[in-house]
Amino acid sequence: xxxxxxxxxxxxxxxxxxxxxxxxxxxxxxxxxxxxxxxxxxxxxxxxxxxxxxxxxxxxxxxxxxxxxxxxxxxxxxxxxxxxxxxxxxxxxxxxxxxxxxxxxxxxxxxxxxxxxxxxxxxxxxxxxxxxxxxxxxxxxxxxxxxxxxxxx
Length: 153
Hints:
The chain is mainly alpha-helical and 153 residues long. It has helices at 10-15, 19-47, 60-80, 86-90, 105-120, 124-127, 138-143; strands spanning 93-97, 145-149. The chain crosses the membrane at residues 23-47, 59-79, 108-131. Keywords: Cell membrane, Membrane, Transmembrane, Transmembrane helix.
């Protein structure tokens, strides 16, 4: 798929994507990730002789690491390969840098880590979209990215 030319669409770059469309895209992505994590949990339970891996279990730190890593890989891979996760494609949202470049691994990593803080502070990083004129969250600001509404093109 060719990268859309946003140089002629300054209104899309100025407005960004609102909070609710972001949350719906995240909701879709969480379902996909949850399916993957169910498979991983099933494998871990099998390896743990049929017992769930819970806090205090010797496999628990490894399980947390695997869950974090799979989540990281899911988002970073999609962001660096077209700027859209499957949820973002469904909701016609695309991620690019504020200077209209594709996302590289460094930018994607910054965005992912900062997004954890956006959620971690009771969602304040996401509520920032109501304050920012371009509807950006903390992770958009820290990674110098913007989510574009492809319906406006």
